[in-house]
Amino acid sequence: MTYATASSARTQASQAELAAALLRITMGVLFVLHAWMKIAIFTPSGTAGYFVSIGLPAFLAYVTIIVELLGGLALIAGIATRWVSLALVPVMIGAGWFGHGANGFFFSNANGGWEYPAFWTVALLVQALLGDGAYAYGNRVAR
Question: How many Å apart are CA 80 and CA 89, to the nearest integer?
Answer without folding.
Answer: 14
